[in-house]
């Protein structure tokens, strides 16, 4: 029974498969539904039967494909051959059509068409060159536009563009100049950063190669730059392309000189701004660092421009800027580093107790047995700036030592570096400060005297500075050839300048008193006492020379002699002034009283050390001239003239003649010789005779 059922299922399944294979796809649905409607598992057996049937068909299909494969390949090959032939046929067809098309036109029409075609191509090509003129927005396009305009300038459409070309040139220059101004503003703001990078590069080079390393901050080849390229060179921080492009634009437009002048003018202005420090710069080290970084950054940029462009800046221009910067830097540093001098009161240091005395001598090596024996309170001869300067120099030496230690040099080399650096500090910085201090208007005679005293003590302290360097470097001066400090010459130079300034100011002060003189040159007789202005002058000289007691003897003596000679010369010039036409005998008598006071001052030994009447000899010319006129001793003068033993040896005939001429005119108008004429009617004739004889002597001297 089971076998029969199985056969029935197989027969039924076979029928269904045959029906599926032979029936249209749309009618398969009912057939398949009949299988699934069966409640038994007939559909599973059907699926197995279906899989078997599918595999049988697959094998049949494969057999058929294998059988017909070669035929398929041959058919494809034939088809490809046909395609090639079809393409050839198409080419021949097109040629035939083209020949037929040309045969319908005349030769003239063909030529005209070809000309039009060529013109159209040329027009498109040339217009494409002008496209930057429409969409220009970069420097490169501006430059390309200038070149393209030249290439198409002979075409008709360029006439219109030519009319706008001046405006276009102006616009190009304005835009390029605008970018240049932005560049200048940018480097002004970032010069400190550029300088900082350059300074770091230099420091790294010094550390690696020593103080003699060949350093360069520009773009020219530099082995140091090769070694430290990883750190980033200073010029890498700046984009110089705006300068290059603007330079090329102006050169193409034939206006390079204008650009060069503008660039140099603007950079010179920026240099002045860079060199102007902030008001608070001197308050912190960072302020100084930023100031110097800005200056270095400025010159790094200029050095790059110098080497990267041809003639935009010259070596002479950069040297001019550097000289300007150097003088400004010195002035700035001097302004903020001579505060020690500005705060000094230029008077001896008072010490009231032993503690105060010990405090001063702990800062400055002062030793004076006489002063040490004095009771308190007492005064030290130098002013307060001396220990301050000495302390500052020692601090500089110590700071230089700390710096040199990082260079990994030997003790001998460090010792030599310290001495050379200290010499530069003394001979350049300190000496320059002292020289400028001496020339300042507010520094008077008292201050100058104190400066001379101060430099004397500073000069004596130089040996202690050398000992200080020896102690901190542990290099004995006997073991090696060491550099000596130049402090001796520095302070000697400053002292000589102060001495010369004393002589100058002293003479200027004498001139101020002389200008107050108000002689009544026609007075009939003297007042019987010296003039007020001269007595004031004598008192001033006395008080001034009292201050000179602390000066070296030679300086005080030279100043005193210089003052007396200048006073005598000024008085003589007053008598012989060509503007003074008449002098009476009464005026001569008054003048004689003033000269007597000068001689008394000279004989009072205002400054010790003069031998005999050395100081009075400053007035000998005046004394002999006045005696000649007061005594009216012409016969003796004329008889002894030219003799070494002459009483009036210092009276020049020309001087006597000039003064006598002034008195002769007065005698005629004021009748001052009336008393002589009563006693001797021939007095006037004698004057005329003396005048003639004096003229003869003067003429003989001139011949």
From TrEMBL:
The keyword Transport applies. InterPro entries: EXOC6/Sec15, EXOC6/Sec15_C, EXOC6/Sec15_C_dom1, EXOC6_Sec15_N, EXOC6PINT-1/Sec15/Tip20_C_dom2. Residues 338-662 form the Exocyst complex subunit EXOC6/Sec15 C-terminal domain. One of its GO terms (biological process) is intracellular protein transport. The keyword Chloroplast does not apply. Residues 49-132, 151-199 form the Exocyst complex component EXOC6/Sec15 N-terminal domain. Keywords: Exocytosis, Transport. GO terms for cellular component: exocyst; plasma membrane. It comes from the Eukaryota. Pfam families: EXOC6_Sec15_N, Sec15_C. Component of the exocyst complex involved in the docking of exocytic vesicles with fusion sites on the plasma membrane. Belongs to the SEC15 family. This is Exocyst complex component. It comes from Gouania willdenowi (Blunt-snouted clingfish). The gene is exoc6.
């Amino acid at each position: 029974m089971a076998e029969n059922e199985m056969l029935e299922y197989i027969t039924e399944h076979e029928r269904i498969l045959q029906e599926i294979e032979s029936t249209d796809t749309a009618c398969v649905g009912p057939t398949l539904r009949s299988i699934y409607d069966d409640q038994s598992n007939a559909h599973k057996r059907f699926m197995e039967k279906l899989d078997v049937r599918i595999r049988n068909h697959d094998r049949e299909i494969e057999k058929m494909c294998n059988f017909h494969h070669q035929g398929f390949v041959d058919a494809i090959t034939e088809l490809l051959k046909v395609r090639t032939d079809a393409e050839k046929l198409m080419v021949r067809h097109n040629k035939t059509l083209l020949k037929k098309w040309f045969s319908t036109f005349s030769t003239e029409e063909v030529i005209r068409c070809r000309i039009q075609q060529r013109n159209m191509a040329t027009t498109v090509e040339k217009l494409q060159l002008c496209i930057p003129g429409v969409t220009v927005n970069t420097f490169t396009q501006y430059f390309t536009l200038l070149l393209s305009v030249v290439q198409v300038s002979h075409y008709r459409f360029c006439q219109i563009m030519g009319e706008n070309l001046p405006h276009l040139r102006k616009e190009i220059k304005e835009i390029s100049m605008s970018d240049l101004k932005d560049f200048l503003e940018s480097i002004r703001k970032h010069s400190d950063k550029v300088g900082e990078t350059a300074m770091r590069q230099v420091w790294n080079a010094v550390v690696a190669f020593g103080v003699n390393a060949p350093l360069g901050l520009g773009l020219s080849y530099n082995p140091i730059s090769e070694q430290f390229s990883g750190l980033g060179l200073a010029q890498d921080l700046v984009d110089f392309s705006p300068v290059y492009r603007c330079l090329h634009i102006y050169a193409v437009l034939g206006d390079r000189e204008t650009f060069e002048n503008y660039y140099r003018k603007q950079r010179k202005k920026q240099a002045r701004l860079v060199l102007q420090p902030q008001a608070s710069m001197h308050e912190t080290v960072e302020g100084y660092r930023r100031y110097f970084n800005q200056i270095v950054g400025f010159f790094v940029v200029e050095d790059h421009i110098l080497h990267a462009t041809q003639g935009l800046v010259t070596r002479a221009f950069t040297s001019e800027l550097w000289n300007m910067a150097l003088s400004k830097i010195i002035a700035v540093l001097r302004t903020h580093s001579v505060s020690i001098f500005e705060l000094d009161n230029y008077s001896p240091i008072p010490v009231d107790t032993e503690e105060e005395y010990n405090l001063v001598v702990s800062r400055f090596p002062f030793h004076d047995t006489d002063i040490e024996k004095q009771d308190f309170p007492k005064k030290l001869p130098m002013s307060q700036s001396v220990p301050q300067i000495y302390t500052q120099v020692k601090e500089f030496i110590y700071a230089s030592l700390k710096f040199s230690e990082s260079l990994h040099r030997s003790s001998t080399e460090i010792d030599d570096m310290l001495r050379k650096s200290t010499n530069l500090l003394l001979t350049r910085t300190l000496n320059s400060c002292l020289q400028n201090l001496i020339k300042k208007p507010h520094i008077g005679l008292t201050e100058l005297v104190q400066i001379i005293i101060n430099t004397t003590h500073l000069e004596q302290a130089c040996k202690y500075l050398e000992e200080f360097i020896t102690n901190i470097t542990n290099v004995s001066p006997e073991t090696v050839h060491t550099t000596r400090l130049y402090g001796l010459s520095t302070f000697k130079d400053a002292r000589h300048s102060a001495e010369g300034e004393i002589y100058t100011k002293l003479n200027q002060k004498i001139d101020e008193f002389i200008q107050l003189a108000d002689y009544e040159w026609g007075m009939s007789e003297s007042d019987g006492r010296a003039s007020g202005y001269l007595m004031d002058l004598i008192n001033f000289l006395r008080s001034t020379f009292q201050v000179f007691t602390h000066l070296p003897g030679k300086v005080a003596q030279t100043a005193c002699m210089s003052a007396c000679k200048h006073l005598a010369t000024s008085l003589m010039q007053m008598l012989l002034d060509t503007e003074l036409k008449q002098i009476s005998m009464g005026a001569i008598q008054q003048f004689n009283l003033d000269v007597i006071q000068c001689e008394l001052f000279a004989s009072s030994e205002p400054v010790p050390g003069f031998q005999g009447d050395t100081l009075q000899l400053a007035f000998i010319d005046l004394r002999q001239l006045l005696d000649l006129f007061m005594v009216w001793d012409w016969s003796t003068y004329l008889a002894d003239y030219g003799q070494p033993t002459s009483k009036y040896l210092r009276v020049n005939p020309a001087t006597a003649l000039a003064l006598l001429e002034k008195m002769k005119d007065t005698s005629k108008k004021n009748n001052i010789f009336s008393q002589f004429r009563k006693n001797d009617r021939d007095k006037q004739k004698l004057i005329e005779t003396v005048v003639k004889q004096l003229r003869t002597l003067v003429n003989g001297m001139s011949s």
